[in-house]
Amino acid sequence: MMRKVPLIALGTWSWGSGLGGGDQVFGNSIDTNDVKPIFDAAMQAGLNLWDTAAVYGEGTSETILGECLKGYDRAEVMISTKFTPQVAGESDDPVHQMCSESAARLHTDYIDIYWIHNPADVEKWTPGLIPLLKSGKVKHVGVSNHNLKQIIQANSILGKEGFRISAVQNHYSLLYRSSEDAGIIDYCYRNEITFFAYMVLEQGALNGKYNSTSPLPENSARAATYNKLLPQLEELTAAMKTVGESHNASVAQIAIAWAIAKKTLPIIGVTKLSQVADAISAAKISLSEQEVGKLDKLAKKTGIDTKGGWENPMT
């Protein structure tokens, strides 16, 4: 059984630089000095679950997180990182190799949650998690970007050795609810699997700060994806603002609270102290069924599908 986790995980995709890194995806330029005060503030508030991946900035995200961890009791922190099949090496055991490389960058001898990042071949890659679990190098395992059939298949493979999936991590937001439609969230809830929802804020498009007259920063992948959609989002974000006013909350906090109301654990990217404050406040908000239903309806009305190019359909 996975030890108690906070209601929100903090994401580090936008930390670091390089292929798949914060500079290319988010238009950021972030190093350890930028995020160390943010890490410390989050830890002080009890937000101790940090999500990263070997492919975020070619390991630079993990390296920065590892630097932030210095000086902390390892038992106080929960680290979530990922094996990505698409960049697996040619060693005899690529899963073990990538996990060991991640652990070295993170300055740790174990990973709390280790994920198969994408379902390139469930039968090929899932068994690689079993030796890591047996050795204690990995405490819990999960699968990310997998559909329901693949999740069940991975769970079956692990089950033959007495293990199980502890977590599923998929793209899930007001604008992209494929995991809900496919029954994945219900499956996780019934089987005591924690569903991690990433891109809850759709890379900032649902934080209430951007609109057709004030778009996302140019020269980034997220601007290319979302700026053209901002006019379609204005009715939804206006309603989120109204709901927020009744809870003394921001638009971003409502997007996060919505994900929690859906029985998911949102991952919130943090590059500013204000985003940590958003997460702390959002965890205290309890939306009514009527509020959730209203937001669901308006989100569907936008007609927007934000499925990423790396994602396969869930349904």
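[next item in queue]
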Amino acid sequence: MIDGSTPQQQALHDAVSAVLRPLAQLAVAQGMPAATLEELLRRSIVQAARQAQPDPNAQRMVSRISTATGLSRREVKRLVDNEVRVSARPRSLASEVFARWTTARAYRDTRGRPRVLPRQGAGASFEALALSVTRHVHPRSVLDELVRLGIATHDAERDTVTLQREAFVPRGDVIRMLGFLGDNVGDHLSAAVHNVTKESERHFEQAVFADELSRASLAQVRRVVRAQWNALIDATIPLLQTMIDEDQRADRVRDQRLRIGMYAFNDTLDGATPAAPPPAGPIRRSRTARKEST
């Protein structure tokens, strides 16, 4: 039974429903049965309850989790005994090469666009670019991966490499795209949940919201968003690389990770009707854009 008897409980139910709707759309689109989704949710609930305990290895842990979640002790024990550890995926060398190619001055032209690079040679070549990211994988293997993903092309006759995308969106690589979805949305949601449930330092998590826009207006907004994202990338990636290098040289404890993102989403308003000429008479006040945050 879903009980929204208090305003806070109702607000929580509304928030969880808003989060679950797109998750359900993903499951249906990818053919994931409801039973599998429910099992994943139960596992996550048990893991969250276990992490919330001051001593996760204490006796009577199963009873404590059962009390916190409402799941039976038998169900909790089953989930704990069969807990699946999610291992971190290996670093994406392709995305790191893409990021450095699009931000490092040596690999951009006077207009700031990624240069067409000779595959080999002294100076700004693709080989030098790949080696600046890793010396554990041969540059040719990195190039083959970029070509496979549709991110770059190799002109064999001229022996040059050209970047084909403005953003790292691997063509037809559903597995990698699902990985991006989990990483990006998971961290974004974690930031918002932290801000609601914790009293410690808040994560930056804000948005601007507006409705009653036309499709022509959306096209203009998209151009602004893209320009702002490019400016953010240009400012942050070189800074982060400098910080990584400085932390390594100073032999500091390097136990922190960071993800910075932007998103924009548009949809048709509920009950919207096709555009019509404005009625004669007094001008109706339009809705104003507003800022939202957690």
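[queue empty]
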